[in-house]
Amino acid sequence: MSIQVTPLALSEVKLIEPKVFGDPRGYFFESFNVREFESQVQPGVQFVQDNHSRSVKGVLRGMHYQIEHAQGKLVRVVEGAVFDVAVDMRRSSPTFGKWAGAQLSADDHKQMWIPPGFAHGFVVLSDEAQFLYKTTDYWYPEFERCLLWNDPAVGIVWPIDFEPALAAKDAAGKSLSEAECYA
């Protein structure tokens, strides 16, 4: 077994820890293996797009989701550290409006699986961070929506003591009561 999978506060959101083989020369690990992923995380997933972002300390990206063409995301950090968050945006779910989060870093190689139907975002904790993620559907800007990162109804506990740097679309995110949600 090359990964250890731990459900987070929302059981569908999973923290994935790969087995890392290291010695004085460096390390090696499988960052993705479809057999392991399907047997331990989510069967039947097909990834269609890989994305890469770089951000400096204090940048908060999110909370993004697509109201049509919902995306599942497998996320990881290849430089630095972030606090990564998922919020359940499915009205019919018993965990609607609840969140789960975890710290991900290049040092620990952990990944997070965010299923379709969840908003996703992260804040950069290190001087800079490079963030990679696979998606199960393509990006459709016309369907992109943004949940307000600090909506008190959701109550995300961000591990920061500063006002984050936000893109205009993220600063204009909707509260959970105003947001367009999944059925």
Subunit arrangement of the protein: single chain
What is the averaged pLDDT score? 97
What is the CA-CA span between the terminal residues? 36 Å
Number of DSSP strand runs:
13
Supply the helix-strand structural class.
Answer: mainly beta
CATH topology of the domain at 46-171: Jelly Rolls
CATH class descriptor of the domain at 46-171: Mainly Beta
Architecture (CATH level 2) name of the domain at 46-171: Sandwich
Envelope shape: globular
CATH superfamily of the domain at 46-171: Jelly Rolls
Report the sheet with the most strands, covering strand number, pairing sense and barrel closure. 6 strands, antiparallel
- The SSE string, one letter per element, is EEEEHEEEEEEEEEH
Strand order of the largest sheet: 1-2-10-7-12-5
The percent of residues in helical segments reads: under 10%
Beta-strand share of residues: 35-45%
Helix count from the secondary structure assignment: 2
> Uncertain runs with pLDDT below 50, 5 residues or more?
none
Radius of gyration: 16 Å
EC number: 5.1.3.13
Organism: Trinickia dabaoshanensis
Keywords: Isomerase
Pfam families: dTDP_sugar_isom
Provide structural commentary.
It holds the Pfam family dTDP_sugar_isom. The record marks 139 as: Participates in a stacking interaction with the thymidine ring of dTDP-4-oxo-6-deoxyglucose. By secondary structure, the protein is mainly β. It has a domain at 46-171: Jelly Rolls. Helix content is 6%, strand content 41%. The protein is built from 2 helices and 13 strands. The protein has helices at residues 34-40, 168-171; strands at residues 3-7, 14-18, 21-23, 26-28, 49-56, 60-66, 73-79, 81-88, 99-105, 111-114, 118-124, 128-135, 144-146. The strands form 3 sheets. The chain has a 6-stranded antiparallel β-sheet, with no helix packed on it. A hairpin with a 2-residue loop joins β3 (21-23) and β4 (26-28). The radius of gyration is 16 Å and the shape is globular. The chain starts with a strand and ends in a 12-residue tail after the last helix.
